[in-house]
Amino acid sequence: MGILEIIIAKASELNVFELLQWLPTSGYLAKLTKDQLKKVYSIIRQKNNLGKFAFVPNAEEYYALTKLADKSVYRDFKKLLKGHWGVDVVRTGLYILSLERKGEIDQINLVKQQVFANKQVSGLRLIGMVTEGVIKPALDYLKELKEKKNFSPEDLNKAFEDLLNEWEKITIFVKSDDFVETIFKKAKNMVDQKKQTFFIFAKGKAIAVACAAIVRLQKEEYLLEKGYVWFAETDLDTTPPSYYCAAYSSLFLM
Amino acid sequence: MEFEELDVEGKKLLLNAYNYEVDEEGIIIDATLKEPVISKDTQQLITLKNVSLLPGSLNLLDTTPLTISKFLREKIESKNGNP
Fold first, then answer.
1. Which of A16, A48, A94, A130 to mutate to test the interface with B (most CBs of B within 10 A)?
2. Cα A22 to Cα B12, B50, B52, distances in angstroms
3. Is the model's pLDDT at B2 over the cut of 80?
4. How far apart are CA B14 and CA B48, in angstroms?
5. How many angstroms away from the CA of B23 is the closest CA of chain A?
6. Helix %, strand %, coil % for chain A, to 5?
7. Which residues of A touch B3 (CB under 8 A)?
8. B5-55 pLDDT, tens digit each
9. Is residue A243 classed exposed, middle or buried when 0-12, 13-18 and 19+ CB atoms within 10 A define those classes?
10. What is the DSSP letter of B71?
């Protein structure tokens, strides 16, 4: 049996992944004529075109990103903002969150650089919304607009772009040594400035302060009178939660 | 679809089968055009180290979480009824 026949016989028993592992170590490739090599390439293409395998630098990364399609934030974003440029950025942001939990700082910085290179500042802003947990209440707010104000897909996209451009300016970042009263006053200030939406965000020990401030705000009828409704998001993947984010939106100011 | 990691020789062999070569710096070259392959997504040269070799004839992806996300959404999830 000639070398080509040996390869053909062996290839019939192997899938493309096994074939690509076996062939280079077999010692046969260097002995093939040009025409025989073309035949081997044809066999490889036939097997690869079955589409069963993708050959990737880091399979774990692919599987991790595949699983993130099940996250409600990703699903809601795709559903509410059909065709939005940021859909892949949202999944990338969720991936960065998983890297944060593992403390992989260098990898996080690299991914952010890649997002910036491709989607510029808007991409990084969207990453921030995802990693800070602002995205979930923001999407809840969009759902309200869709259901109660009959916003069209175009209107929803516009509302989201406005939020994206402004979210850092309309977020009260709570620190663990903040007074509840300070947060309360900052929130009232947002209302007095007629901010349609604002966020209260806290991480770690500051979560307790943020929650106390929100309890205080809920008791205050001032917000209710101005038509503000409330959405909250907490990180359910960690115990205790690593962040907490509340959004107040006025349906009167639309 | 299964995601697998191939060694350098396996990747080169698959690339050769689709008429690509790899230069001494690890940059993938279109053997017909005699030109380096540039990613449409990242506008970067695609290297052997960072390439994903994806089925559908052979698609070369400059691998980042963002490009992977796009690939999964467009080529995998849309076929599963989740566009």
1. A48
2. 13, 22, 20
3. yes
4. 11
5. 18
6. 65, 10, 25
7. 53-56, 59, 62-63
8. 999 999 999 999 999 999 999 999 999 999 999 999 999 999 999 999 998
9. buried
10. H
Of B14, B63, B69, the CB nearest to A20: B14
Tokens of A120: 């510029």
Residues 6+ apart with CB under 8 A from A65: A91, A95, B65, B68, B69, B72
Mean pLDDT by 10 residues, chain A (254 residues): 93 97 96 96 96 97 97 94 96 96 94 96 95 86 86 93 91 92 91 88 87 85 80 66 76 60
Question: Which residue stretches of A132-194 are H helix?
Answer: 135-149, 153-166, 180-192
Residues of chain A in contact with residue B77, where contact means CB-CB under 8 angstroms, are: 69
CB atoms within 10 A of CB A151: 19
Is there a contact between A72 and A84 (Cβ–Cβ < 8 Å)?
no
Residue B83 pLDDT > 70:
no
Task: State the pTM of this model.
Answer: 0.87
**Which are the contacts of A86, defined by CB distance < 8 A and separation ≥ 6?**
A77, A119, A122, A123, A126, A164
pLDDT given for residue A140 in this prediction: 85
